[in-house]
Each structure stands twice: as structure tokens, then as C-alpha cells.
Amino acid sequence: MAYLNKVMLIGNLGKDPEIRMTATGRKKVSFSLATSRRYRDAAGEQKEITDWHNVVGWGKTADIFEQLNVRKGTSLFVEGTISYRSWDDQNTGQKRYITEINLDVFQLLSPRQAPSGNYGGGANYSRPAQQDASHYDNTASGSYNPPMPDNDMDDDLPF
Predict the structure, then answer these.
(1) Residue-range definition of the domain harbouring residue 58
(2) If we measure between CA atoms, which residue out of 107, 22, 92 comes closest to residue 61?
(3) Which of 6, 42, 43, 65 would you label with 113, given CA atoms 20 to 30 Å apart?
């Protein structure tokens, strides 16, 4: 039997992405993505619910987030897999749980912000190494299709 673990979301970043290096020297980007859905309640009033998703990207994906200067409020399409993990909190001893989206592909849906604080107006961005150029969509949208993962899962788990 075939299985599928695929998540596709369109939303807005709730805060600036956090980009850092792990203890093993691997770059990681993490951010929260807000998605909203509308419905009508029993009285017929339209309501909106916002869900928050934890998204994590590794290696070159983190590099590209940094290069594109992605910031809070940016509209983004993300595609990836969902994962669940747990650990024991070292301070309280309580079991902690988190659900994360492991980012495979993303696309900026709003104009990207230049480092000076001005919006780039959809200008193309530069590619790093020529060998990696095949993963970029050199359009104004800033799409990125990363290479296949190397299955080197490097977590910062507190255990």
C-alpha cells in the first residue's frame, strides 16, 4: 500500500524567520505561518479562524530565506511533510509535543523586501553557485525547488 505525507499551505509569516546554525554546523530556518479559514456560525454570522503552523527548512532552503530577506507579513506558499516529535522539558520535566511542517518547496506570493527595507518590486534575485541554478525559478515570484534531501536529519532536540 502506498502512503502519502504532503502538506500545502498558503499564509502569512507571523514573525521574522529565525535563521541559525545547529551545533553540527547545519543552517536551519524556522518560522510560524498563519492560515485563515472562514465559516458561518449557527446565527449565520461569518467568522474567521486563524491556524498557526510551525515550519522548518534546512541547508540551502535556509540560505535562500536569508538571501531573499523574507520578513514578517510576507505571503508564502509552502509545500512539505508533516512531522510530530516530543521531548521531556529539562526545566519542568514535562513531556512537550510539537507538530512541524518540514519545508520542501516554497514560493513568495508578495513582493520581497530588500535589505534596505524597501520592497524589491519583483526583481530577480541572484543565484548562488552555477551547480545549484537548476533549482531556481528565475521569475519575479522567487520560487525555489530544492534538491532531494540527503536524509541527514539534524535536530536540535533537547535530549
Answers:
(1) 7-37+46-135
(2) 107
(3) 6
Please report whether residue 119 resides in a domain.
Answer: yes
pLDDT in the model for residue 51: 96
Biggest CA-to-CA distance, the chain: 58
pTM: 0.67
Q: For residue 31, name the pLDDT band (cuts at 50, 70, 90).
A: very high
Q: Is residue 70 part of a domain?
A: yes
> Where does the chain show beta strands of DSSP type E?
7-13, 18-21, 27-40, 46-58, 75-88, 95-108
What is the distance between the alpha carbons of residues 40 and 137, in angstroms, rounded to a whole number?
A: 39
Q: For the beta carbon of residue 120, count every other beta carbon within 10 angstroms.
A: 18
- CATH (domain of 114): 2.40.50.140
Domain count, the chain: 1
